[in-house]
Amino acid sequence: MKNIVISGYYGQLNTGDEAILRVLIDRLREYERQENEDINIVVLSSRPQLTSKIYKIDSVNRKKIWKVVKAIKRCDIFISGGGSLFQNETSNRSLYYYLFQIFIAKLFGKKVFIFSQGIGPIKKWYNVLVFKHIIKLADYITVRDYDSFDLLHRLKLKNKIDLSADPAFLLSPCCEKRVEKLFQTYNIDLSRKTIGIVVRKWKKEKDMTVKIAQIADILIEDEGYNVVFIPFQGKWDIIKINEIVSKMKNKPCILSENFQPHELLGIFRYFDLIVGMRLHSLIFAAKMNKRFIGISYDPKIDSFLKMYGLKPAGYVDSFDINNVLLNIQYMLNESKIQKKIEQTTNNMIQKAEKSFEILKEALTSIKKRKSINVLGVRIDCINFDKAKKKCIDFLSASSPKVVFTPNVEMIMLSQRDEKFKKILNSSDLNVPDGIGVVWASKYFGEKLYERVTGFDLMMSLMTVLEKKGAKVFLLGAKPGVAEKAKENLLKQFRSLEICGVYHGYFSEEENDTVVEIINSSKPDVLFVAMGMKRQEEWIYKNKKKLKCKLIMGVGGSLDVLSGEVKRAPKMFQKLGLEWFYRLITQPWRFKRMLVLPKFVFIVLKIRIFGGR
């Protein structure tokens, strides 16, 4: 599995930044499908829960530095992606925050990709000096405009710098039916010319609010156009739009602040022209081959317009109503403009693809192993979410798939039992159940970052099995325990179909009868809880006889579910110290626990001397 951390101005509900993130994630998922390779994406966001919900990925609060450092430490590639992160127009703090992330990534030996960014402005010579010395650590740099490209070359960086374009040029719009429904909701007459206006808060207010209101009134009264105000950053833009509308004589249309980027892109298909202060409103217009004029509040607006052979129709500190109106009429009536926009946009799309070609090469260059060998036992390089997904995929299999959960005890037992080692390696999935296995992994070719306990994996599957209507059979533990476990499970998962239970204290002579009982219940999933070794041996021996889709060895999980055994408190679980809790609550397990120091000794011996 390849781990990727994406950093940017995410979680602030800014349509432009979210469009960049959407394209990044979609392209990474496409790479994952094409290469048949697992990718774990973590996004640094100011609203991690919202980001996780929207994009179905992991997210970390970018304000919590320790969590950010931890995420970067685990990644293979750090992507500083999208927008204009390296500038101090807003504040030095923002510039140094994003530079700090690159420094941390390189400190941990990670590949760093400055991805299609706009660079600058960076004020003060000492800020430029710090920027230069940090940015040269990057392994890959692509920028989205000529001015950024020139700035980096003036700094005489030795890095290869590629001119790309904003990833939002690769965003796909939502379907036309969805957009038509939206326009019906807002009662917009598409038989008339429709002008979209995108504004944002600006520093030098002066009388610009009144001037924009006057322009909108003229377009409605004198020209008979529809005027639609479009928020690109939620409530912040709505506040400014409402200020403008309050100064107007006529009533324009105001779109909701809750649209996703692909929805807004689809909406832009129906506009005749966009008047935009936000960069991505101009990019969206260009992407849909619509005419646009820009109001500049930042050099990035000027840089973008320059690529289309245009100049700003106005600036926030020098805004002339007549000049803006003349630009609007020129753009609407000049026939050659449309062809120029289409040609330049096609070129921009090709340039935007370049960054993703480089990213694909970077990902391909990372050699990740699908599994590692820990003292002769195969451990799959997989995290909890991927293990769960794989188990769910197994439900579609035509023959039984087996999941084992090797821990230190099992691995050490396999050192003196070759047959048991062979059985462990015969499974379809071996998850690292135990912090000792995770610790040892870094010495065996691939660092694992989390343990996947059999109990937690089993419980996480219950919700999915309940929704799918899959049948579950519980096998193992002492007589009566499986029944109690079933009772407790049904209290938590009321619609879960547990088609049968049977204890694990049956004789060899009863084995075929037990298999027949299981098969007659027609389970999709069989959880086997007979304890270490015996359950794996039983599964291995009977796998071909069983007619279920997924078989998982879950150790003492039924004892925990029934209440017979109390699991370690959450604190011990998070710290990976369940073994220690069991030792202090069950001191008679002391002899069994001696395998832990032996395991550590053998692993370190191999690390130091290269042999056993």
From TrEMBL:
Catalyses which reaction(s): UDP-N-acetyl-alpha-D-mannosamine + N-acetyl-alpha-D-glucosaminyl-di-trans,octa-cis-undecaprenyl diphosphate = N-acetyl-beta-D-mannosaminyl-(1->4)-N-acetyl-alpha-D-glucosaminyl di-trans,octa-cis-undecaprenyl diphosphate + UDP + H(+)
Keyword Cell wall biogenesis/degradation: yes
A Pfam cross-reference name: Glyco_tran_WecG
Domain of life: Bacteria
This protein's record includes keyword Cell wall biogenesis/degradation: yes
Pathway(s) annotated for this protein in UniProt: Cell wall biogenesis; teichoic acid biosynthesis
Residue ranges annotated for the Polysaccharide pyruvyl transferase domain, each copy included: 14-299
Function field: Catalyzes the conversion of GlcNAc-PP-undecaprenol into ManNAc-GlcNAc-PP-undecaprenol, the first committed lipid intermediate in the de novo synthesis of teichoic acid.
Family as reported in the entry's similarity comment: Belongs to the glycosyltransferase 26 family. TagA/TarA subfamily.
UniProt protein name: N-acetylglucosaminyldiphosphoundecaprenol N-acetyl-beta-D-mannosaminyltransferase
Species: Caldicellulosiruptor diazotrophicus
